[in-house]
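Q: What would this chain look like folded?
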Amino acid sequence: MRKGITFTVTAADRRRLGALVAARSPPQRQHVRNNVLTITQQKTGQQVSIPLHPDLKRVLDSLPNDNLTFLVSDRGGPLKPESFTNWFKRMVQDAGFSGLLPHGLRKATCRMLAESGCTPHQIMAISGHKTLSEVTRYTVAASRTQLSEDAMASLGKIKKGT
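A: My prediction, written as structure tokens:
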């Protein structure tokens, strides 16, 4: 079931996967209210509230109700961050890839949010970054051509495609 949650979060939800693992305490069912997951990040102590994508909600709703924690170990207990990282590395390797880490998903998510038109402050609300310089470091890889076209179009100076 971990694979289903992982792929749903990364492919459909496009939000920080680490939120499910790197909270001060593992995210549990009581952390979801009105389809919003609210956690406190382990590293920064920053509270982050992330609306659930419908695909992620379906996966979480399909999980057995015998454990409050969404990501559990093979023994049924809460999955620790380092255990998740090791499992993720094995999953990536089994899929024929190398060098991919869960933290890279955060950067990719920030870039995708920027490319879809989110403001730096919107990205910070999802990622939990505290400063604009932190989020800028993650979004510098966003499509500069597309962003510059959008910026100029918003000024009404030029039209796209001309």
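The CA atoms of residues 51 and 129 lie 17 Å apart.
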